[in-house]
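ok trying again, last paste got cut off:
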Amino acid sequence: MNRRASERTVEELAQREPAIRKAMTVLEFLNQNEDARKLYEMRLKAQRDEANMLEGAREEAMAAGRAEGRAEGIAQGKADAKAEVTRNMLRAGMSLAQIAAFTGCTEQEIEELKKNDE
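nice, full thing came through this time. structure:
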């Protein structure tokens, strides 16, 4: 009777305390027969392998996202700078042909900037 009460107390503790639950899991593992232990180890290895694979994929995806974001930011910065130079040239009174020659913008793009600034 005393042993049953002790087992129930340990089970209750294991439900409330993660560290005790983990210790009981390890104890159960150590008490298993050899075949069951091998299966348990294989399962743990598969879980660890999957977790490592997912973490690697997550890191690769984040790196790709950062690279894509940097590339988009650089492209946007260049476009903004080109538009600002074009606006300055328009304010300086340069012709559309001259601005197009210096900036690489088409005359239509220059006209659009001109309309948007008015």
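cool. The chain has two domains: 1-31, 32-117. The longest helix spans residues 34-91.
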